[in-house]
Structures are given as C-alpha cells and as structure tokens.
Amino acid sequence: VQLVESGGGLVQPGGSLTLSCAASGFRINTNYMSWVRQAPGKGLEWVSTTGSDDTNTYYADSVKGRFSISRDNAKNTVYLRVNSLKSEDTALYYCARRYDYCLGSGCSDTYDYWGQGTQVTVSS
After folding, report:
1. Distance (Å, whole) CA 96 – CA 59
2. What band does 52 get if pLDDT is binned at 50, 70 and 90?
3. Euclidean distance between CA atoms 115 and 102, whole angstroms
C-alpha cells in the first residue's frame, strides 16, 4: 500500500491549489480517505474525509466553504482543492486511509496508511 501526495507549493493569501493523493496497492473506492495537516510546531489536524463516493464528504470547521475533497476512482486518486488560502493554512498536508474497527461494544476509526505529505505555504 502506498499513498503519494503532490501539488503543494508557495501561494499568496487568497490563492488556490489542488492537492493530489495517488494510491496504489488497494482501491480507494472501498475506503474512506482523509486529508490531515500539521502546521509548524503544532499537532495533527484533521481537514476532510470522503466516503466511498463523493456523496459523503466532511470538513473541519476551519476549512468548510473553502476546501473541497473529491476522488477519481478510475485514477485511484483523491484530491483536495484548497481555495481562499490564509496564512494559517500553512502546513504539511497528508493523505491517509481511514481504518474503522470495533472492540467490544464500541467502534472507532484511525488511519492505517499515510503518505509522505506535501507542503503548502501561504505567504505574501
């Protein structure tokens, strides 16, 4: 299993980018896929998740209305369109495969595979 992100870069405030996550070793149409970011000196922050198709998408409040997650199952690739970028969006953006599990009477989720990340820097 491998996830490879691309598309990051240096962009001015208000600008846009499209991040890509190419998956291999499994089919993304059978998995929930997420984007998670880490800003300099901070912890991991969940950004967005898409279900097995684009009818189920979820966003952190901090990016809702500005970011859009999508997938191309034929290309086995997940995308994150990031618009109206702010300095606080500067981070290393990771693609991750969500893994759902149940223990006893409870169920939860985590991430079992991660990419290497793509850097997004928002600066004038």
Report:
1. 15
2. confident
3. 25
